[in-house]
Amino acid sequence: MPLTLGTKFGPYEIQSQLGAGGMGEVYRARDTRLDRDVAIKILPESFARDADRLRRFEQEARAVAALNHPNILAVFDIGQQDGSPYLVSELLEGETLRHELERGSFSQRKTIEYGVQIAQGLAAAHEKAIVHRDLKPENIFVTKDGRIKILDFGLAKLGQKASNTSAESDGVTLTGSHTLAGLVMGTAGYMAPEQVRGEAVDRRTDIFAFGTVVYEMLSGQRAFRHETPAETMAAILKEDPPEVAQTSHSISPALDRIMRRCLEKNPEQRFQSARDLSFALAALSGTDSSAAARVGSTARKTPVLLIASIVLTAAIAGAVTWLITSRPSPAVRMRFAIPITGEVSHMALSGDGSMLAFVSPDENSQLPVLFVQRIGSSEARPLSGTEGASYPFWSPDGTFIAFFAKGKLQKTSFAGGTPQFLASVMAARGGSWGNRDVIVYAPDAGGELWRVNADGTGARPLTNRLVEKNEDTHRWPVFLPDGDRFLFWAGNFGDIKTEGSSGIFVSSLDAKDKRLIVHCHSNFGITAGQLVYANDTQQLVSMAFDPSSAKISGSVNVLAESVGYQPSVYWAAVTAARNGTVVYNTTSGATRSVLTWMDRSGKELGRLGAPAVMANPAISPDGSRVALDISDRKANAVEVWIERVDGSATTRFTFDASEDVVPLWSHDGAKIAYRKNAATGPLLVLKKATGLEPETDLLEVPNTDDAIPTSWSADDKQILYMYMHESKMGSDFALISGGGGGKPSAFLPGQGHKTNGQFSPDGKWLAYASDESGDWEVYVTTFPGAAGKWQVSLGGGTEPRWRGDGKEIYYLGPNGMMTAVPVSTIATFSSGTPVPLFQFHGRAPISSTDMFSYDVTKDGKRFLVNRYVKPDHIAPLSIVLNVEAKSSN
Predict the structure, then answer these.
(1) Domain containing 168 — which CATH number?
(2) How large is the average pLDDT for residues 275-289?
């Protein structure tokens, strides 16, 4: 019988009854110790008679009490009195979600607002290995100020014997309401298929229940509701809920995709974590229309992409949008120009072709940043936290964009937010996100593809057993619709023109074998039964492609006479969506730069040479020459060149028509070491600075790895180089004789990445950059002993350089800020406070061999900066609709 007013339960004094049911009675009480109102749930006597059940209740209550999350009912205390277990929680004012739903369905805005809070509460519990098992509107409370509280965590499991999963038990629990008493029967409508089948449950079970709750909030009807629990459970196993548009009002495609993904029958096809679910919903927050359309209303106005020709009106833009997203496929291929005012490099269309993600320099820092834009809109939005982005790709449902930056594979919502880390990479070369929530990606320029789950778990090599002797790299993966098979490019660095040395292959997630689809030398796209890629003359072409058999047929069709191509990475500027939409760039998107002299205040003092796609400037010891590598698109090569500082001559130093990069002067100025790509793999080579004698091989590197020279020792007897281990997903330093011969020796081994090693002028110290802390910072250690380590940068840093007297170190700080640090090497090492000098505005790297963005004169007064230069004219992007149809021309 109900407790009377004034009854004491320990320090709690009963004030009134709030509810009663099969899981016990709920009372309002006063905590006499802390002078606050609380809720007490007195559990049934059956708990006290079952020692195991009582023990599990206490364990679960303690775990929930430890959560301390604003969207989970706070548990303050547990105890027993007169053989009756009780649980003390916060007292809530408001009503259950069930009561709100009795008044009708919710708007999309309100559904998303509640949904985000519910998902965040679930995520907090799941991270502590606590699964609710009985999420439903009765167990979700809405406070008077609109805050969501999830009730009865853990009690669903304890409300029945662990082995009792039959329909008769039905998971009955107390509503938990502090405003209404009663039992809620028949929760079968919120069970996941694995619960119905009596199988093991996990956090994805709660995600299914979450989907049913969202459906009910939007439609006002239960997702699965029949006359009997048995019929309801049969529907859960076999049927999909009706379209929301058929029940009440329409919802945005993005929200519908999220909800439907939660309601997948197979747990593997659902969101794999409530954290990801919360992240996806938060991106839609605050809109009653398509979340993608919200980009235009909240984004900064920018002319980066304007979907139209110069005279294209808003009405035409709207028509293009309709053609892409809503039309049945017309019989004619159509083409539109997309004028742009900033260089666009890497691009990715969403699966439905409605959204474009692209990389373009930030207008302030000039660092590459990820933008998103709806096709047909005149507004693009930069995504925060994506500085340094490259090679973006979309999640299958279009809610996330994955990309590579700062040695990490990351994902972010297309509407913005803090990016999430997924895996470490070195010099990534593309990725693809399949509908089984598995991502396949190329973590490095050489070697095999890897796989990782979309929540960041399970990163491991995938195609390592499929790498053949004539293959240096697997890259540019693209999933097929089944989410298991994928296409990828396999190639040979040394001679990509040799028949059979590179092409597009098909494999699957079991990686048992691979099969050649077509010979080519670029990345590719799949769209509407067409395989799109660049041929050897850099035309954009397509062939009929059957995804079910993964075979091509018919003749080659030319879509465009020219498409941008980057020979150093075998990448064509093209992206495709499954609906027959293709966007391509007639230029490579590789930003050009010009060598620029600047003083310590950032004042431009002059320029050296002409703008080009260049990298790795190195001033000769006597200050009269500069060595650098320049990309030659026509020759499909990157070669080392030498510029005279006085501007009197520009001389090509290497002639291999391959990739010769990162030139490094010896201290006497007589020799230049550099990295070469050969048919057998990367090489470290040495050549006299006169250029009159053949080069000498110093080190041969396996195809899957790479080696980049970074500094000569003070006596010119050794060369320090960065060795990139594809198998270890990291980079270490090693030393090789500067005269040739001998075996390399490791230096400063360890986890993570290390790069840009620079010996001090006296040769006793080494400055370098490392991401061992999770962020790139500049460190100094002793040489050769590597005794001790000092961090000299603050808030991030890369590319250290020494002043000629060793009393100052320069580095690139956050957002490309040139920074100087005073140092002392007398007796021991010490450094002062970093001083920002000027905004760098360097060219964004396009290759793993783009190691150095600047050099500095010995006196530290002038900096030679590889500075980004905006072209006078930028060719428009092109969008092609209905690639599979005949041309309208």
Answers:
(1) 1.10.510.10
(2) 68
